[in-house]
Design brief:
With 163 residues, this protein is an alpha+beta fold. Helix content is 33%, strand content 29%. The longest helix has 19 residues, at 32-50. Residues 1-21 have low confidence and may be disordered.
Length: 163
């Protein structure tokens, strides 16, 4: 095996090992601030998306948050509106259920990454499913999420017309 192939193979092994580590083990190599940022992201996921509590949006998302999802406008008001249309779970769960945990989560500097394992219908054969990964990436500024990226692609306009 050539040296570059050995390096590539070693990199793949390290990446696979990281994805298999429990979240607690991954957090040990992060700074205290990075651990705090990661906790904030997991708390946002638990309180906002799992429990559906719109009132926590201002606690976690900057009012002028930059949204890199092509289906969402900037700011946090659209997220509030989405959550207001849900029936919140009360009380908010103390922990994220195991089936709703990210497959991998880490922070580096001001950035937090959550990687999700998903399953979808195979577009070439709808009778089959396939597994894939998705992600959420946040940038923290002044104790709130200032920017957000995810794996979204632009959705077609609703109703066949322009929005």
């Amino acid at each position: 095996m050539r040296f570059s192939n050995v390096k590539l193979f070693a990199g793949v092994v390290v990446l696979l090992a990281m994805t298999c580590m429990p979240l607690a083990a991954q957090s040990k190599s992060m700074t205290p601030q990075e651990q705090k940022n990661l906790k904030m992201a997991l708390d946002w996921w638990r309180e906002g998306f799992i429990a559906g509590h719109a009132e926590v949006v201002d606690k976690y998302l900057a009012a002028d948050m930059i949204q890199h999802n092509p289906n969402m406008e900037n700011g946090n008001s659209r997220v509030k509106d989405l959550l207001k249309n849900r029936t919140p779970i009360t009380p908010i769960p103390a922990a994220i259920p195991p089936d709703r945990m990210p497959a991998m989560a880490f922070a580096k500097g001001d950035y937090v990454v959550l990687i999700w394992e998903r399953e979808g219908k195979d577009p070439s054969d709808p009778s089959k499913t396939y597994k894939y990964n998705d992600f959420d990436l946040f940038r923290v500024e002044n104790g709130k999420f200032k920017e957000h990226w995810d794996g979204a692609v632009k959705n077609p306009p609703r109703g066949g017309g322009k929005e």
